Amino acid sequence: xxAERVRKIAPSATLAIDAKAKQLKxxxxxxxxxxxGEPDFNTPENIKKAALKSIDDNITRYTPVGGxxxxxxxxxxxxxxxxxxxxxxxxxxxxxxxxxxxxxxxMAVLDKGDEAILPVPYWVSYEEMIKLAEAKIVLCGTxxxxxxxxxxxxxxITDKTKMLILNTxxxxxxxxxxxxxxxxxxxxxxxxxxxxxSDEVYEFFIYGNERHLSIAxxxxxxxxxxISVNSVSKTYAMTGxxxxxxxxxxEIIKAMENLQxxxxxxxxxIAQMAALEALNGPQDSVKEMVxxxxxxxxxxxxxxxxxxxxxxxEPEGAFYVFxxxxxxxxxxxxxxxxxxxxxxxxxxxxxxxxxxxxxxxSYATSMHEIEKGLDKIEKWLKQTTVKIH
Length: 389
Ligand SMILES: Cc1ncc(COP(=O)(O)O)c(C=O)c1O
Known about the structure:
The chain is of the alpha/beta class. It has two domains: 4-43 and 284-383, Aspartate Aminotransferase, domain 1; 45-280, 3-Layer(aba) Sandwich (Aspartate Aminotransferase, domain 2), CATH 3.40.640. Helices cover 43% and strands 12% of the residues. The protein is built from 14 helices and twelve strands. The strands form three sheets. A seven-stranded mixed sheet has the order 2-8-7-6-5-3-4, with helices on both faces. Strand 5 (161-167), helix 8 and strand 6 (195-199) form a beta-alpha-beta unit. It is globular, with a radius of gyration of 21 Å. The structure holds pyridoxal-5'-phosphate. Pyridoxal-5'-phosphate binds at residues 37, 97-99, 123, 167, 171, 199, 201, 231, 233, 239, 244.
């Protein structure tokens, strides 16, 4: 009999859809996949070369558990340069991906009985991590544009609130929290003394007039309560390399490092050398990728709104759209499984993110595939027997 701990958690729905879609593709089916949670670009050459050099130079051993001092320094400098946050090197931890950073945080901070406020729609893993830490999930909504506001957060605060999850730009919605609201949310955290886990892994994927704002940059009081989570995965198309980094008070970082020392130890030395080049080297590839995503984002938003039964808010960040499918008469699981079986298009059911009225499409795929996939969705919806009310 397995432990209760694992019996309570659900497998990642996003990975499950992706696996089924990839299997169909392998079988030779002409399938369009909108499921990917990773850029379709290759890791830039300079980063790959840094990893190869690390192997040639025999930089292939254990590093300090919390990461190489050079990489911590690069992360601290990046926090200063891009996020306007001053972290000392002792306030930085390098982990095996942003997901690992988040897992360490939940385990280091949450106790049984603590409440963690989780805005809906949310990235799938937060929910399961909070459950694993045996804390109580307190779901809260977002506004009609999926934006988190201080009023919504304020309504959920109790004397047990230990943490708020703040993910901007957001996966799955692409929503970006407004600066004024972010300031008010910071005041709530300071006044009520709870942590803010600020997941900023999509910080560079921000479009139009939006600018990324890190909550920890607002003032020292909120900085002390914030755990700023980041990763090289999305920014540098390095999802497979597994390097995440975070900044927080030394007390929290030490606790996380302690945990890490008894589980994974240091992240791969070679991947750390690659991440060092990613943070310190030329940044042109990021701009190029963001430009391509912006073009796809605009097309996708416009085209989805032309399809009967679907309506879609323009996302401001990340690389996802999260259209409303209510008018099709289907819930998200029925929509996604029928779409995959009947039209060979893979999208992710919104229920996995706590929102059954939506589905998530990633535009981390070529324009050609996007056009083809959306044409297929339109045709399928026209043919489907479900009445459009
Ligand atoms: C919101 C969010 N946070 C964190 C992660 C973790 O990314 P990684 O572990 O690859 O750094 C993801 C990945 O999909 C994500 O969407």
